[in-house]
Design brief:
Layout (H helix, E strand, L loop, with lengths): L1 H24 L15 E4 L2 E4 L4 E7 L2 E6 L5 H10 L5 E4 L4 E4 L5 H37 L5 H33 L12 H5 L8 H12 L23 E5 L3 H7 L4 H22 L3 E8 L7 H24 L3 E5 L7 H14 L6 E8 L1 H17 L10 H7 L10 E4 L18 E4 L9 H13 L9
Parallel strand pairs: 7-8, 7-11, 8-10, 9-10, 11-12
Antiparallel strand pairs: 1-2, 3-4, 4-6, 5-6
Helix pairs in contact: 1-3, 1-4, 3-4, 7-8, 8-9, 8-13, 9-10, 11-12
The chain binds farnesyl diphosphate (FPP).
Length: 469
């Protein structure tokens, strides 16, 4: 029957996608995982046998795979099978175990991996199209006996839609793999953009500031990096969905350079761009940035005015590129107190990016977690007062739905820069089970490699949510 034929075809297409994911997991990206050896077949007493049926495979560290054969006599057969594979691993044995070292990813190897990823993708597409052909043949056979030509056509159209869906899924899997796996290449620090940097018409700007900046750049004082990119060991699995950042240390960054605090914020704006691009590159779904708290109004008016001007400035400079990158801009905070120009800039950016489906860049602007919780609870209390709800019916989900972050996943990873170890009224409810990552770096020094390092550290953590691992 056509229904069964389509169901069977869909199951086969689903299997093709799973097989593609498995194949891609076996491509070496720089990190040791037993899945890399999934495809290795050993000639064991004349029959090809999967390696994982012949040995224990462990990862004593992120760059090493240890193979402990159950039958010592199979050691050389296993070695031969690994050498024949296209994994490019360095091999050593001590007569009992085999140690595989994963060399750092070279540019050459990276290119090869991209090619292999594409090849696997093409093979999956061919497999899916063959499944379509089989399904259509089976449907056509029914035309003579069970179904009309019209019905046959409709069923074949369904098969085509299914094919399109799974081909699109292949593209998605490939894009995710290419985007995440082979990208951590050392890059030079961005060249000093002295002109763009200094022509900003800041309330405190001016010629002196321009000179100060120019001399600072000339001294070669690039954003500090406490992270050696070549040591960052990122996996394409387990990328946090939501990363939230408390961007702290702008003032101290500026003071160290003998500059006014606002220049720290100005430089922090550049770090916002770097973090956004890096988050997008990693495949993070939501990046929430704490740009202004409900308590920051206590700062001097000049600084508050400057901070309120930054969103407009940032969006004027970066919105087009963010749109190109399919970034969706959102804001989480209380608009009532914000100046009109700040709201207008944010609204325009949100409107222009509302249909984008990539990274959600969520600015926490005039945001305070205690106020958010209080206002949410008040709203629920009003429902209780109105008799729409009893106090006992209030659930955690209801409180969550009243928060400004409703609809977004909770942050998996919370980063705070500048060495301060506190939450400062930021997403208190939402970070109940977030992994925390602190760095002494001041926010204006934060770059791509630091986000990568934080995510790599996140990947090493075990999240237990109060249970046992
Ligand atoms: C905390 O550092 C930082 C802020 C209160 C403002 C953060 C704002 C930005 C980084 C710019 C935001 C950019 C956009 C696009 C909205 P601090 O000033 O408290 O530093 P300190 O503790 O060293 O004084």
């Amino acid at each position: 029957m056509p229904g069964t034929i389509k169901k069977h075809a869909e199951e086969r297409m689903e299997k093709a996608i799973q097989a593609l994911k498995r194949d891609l997991a076996t491509l070496r990206a720089g990190r040791a995982t037993p899945a890399l050896l999934d495809r290795i077949q050993v000639d064991y007493y004349g029959s090809p046998t999967p390696l994982n049926q012949l040995a224990n495979i462990n990862t004593p560290d992120t760059r090493t795979l240890m193979i402990q054969p159950w039958d010592k006599s199979s050691l050389s057969d296993i070695e031969r099978a690994i050498m024949k594979s296209d994994l490019g691993l360095t091999l050593a044995n001590d007569g009992i175990n085999i140690r595989l070292s994963i060399p750092p990813l070279t540019e050459e190897r990276r290119v090869e991996l991209v090619k292999m990823t594409k090849k696997h993708g093409e093979e999956s597409k061919v497999a899916i199209r063959n499944i379509r052909r089989d399904a259509n043949d089976d449907i056509k056979k029914l035309e003579k006996t069970d179904i009309s030509e019209d019905e046959s056509r409709r069923h074949q159209e369904d098969v085509q839609k299914m094919t399109d869906k799974y081909i699109a899924e292949v593209e998605k899997v490939l894009a995710a793999k290419e985007k995440r796996s082979w990208k951590f290449k050392r890059r030079e620090a961005a060249p000093p953009n002295t002109v763009g940097f200094c022509l900003f018409s800041s309330p405190t700007g001016g010629k002196e500031m321009i000179k100060l900046f120019q001399s600072w750049w000339k001294k070669g004082d690039r954003p500090a990096s406490s992270v050696d990119p070549s040591t960052v060991d990122l996996s394409d699995e387990n990328i946090p969905k939501h990363v939230a950042i408390i961007m702290d240390g702008n003032g101290r960054w500026a003071r160290r350079r003998g500059m006014p605090r606002n220049m720290g914020h100005r430089s922090g704006m550049k770090a916002v761009k770097r973090a956004t691009i890096a988050a997008d590159e990693l495949g993070i779904s939501v990046l929430t940035l704490y740009a202004f708290s409900t308590e920051n109004w206590k700062r001097p008016k000049e600084e508050v005015d400057y901070l309120m001007a930054i969103p407009k400035e940032f969006l004027a400079l970066e919105l087009d590129e963010l749109i190109q990158k399919n970034v969706q801009i959102r804001m989480m905070g209380y608009t009532k107190e914000l100046p009109d120009h700040t709201i207008a800039a944010m609204k325009e950016a949100m409107e222009r990016t509302k249909n984008n489906t990539g990274l959600i860049l969520n600015f926490a602007l005039n945001y305070g977690s205690r106020r958010e919780i209080t206002e949410g609870v008040r709203e629920l209390a009003r429902s209780v007062q109105a008799g729409e709800l009893s106090a006992d019916q209030i659930t955690e989900e209801m409180i969550q739905s009243k928060l400004l972050s409703a609809g977004l996943p909770e942050p998996d990873l919370l980063i705070r820069t500048s060495g301060e170890l506190r939450l400062s009224n930021f997403m208190l409810w939402q970070t109940a089970y977030s992994e925390l990552w602190f760095t002494d770096l001041y926010w204006p020094d934060f770059g791509r490699e630091h986000l990568f390092a934080a995510v790599a550290e996140y990947q090493r953590r075990t999240r237990r949510y109060g249970g046992l691992s």
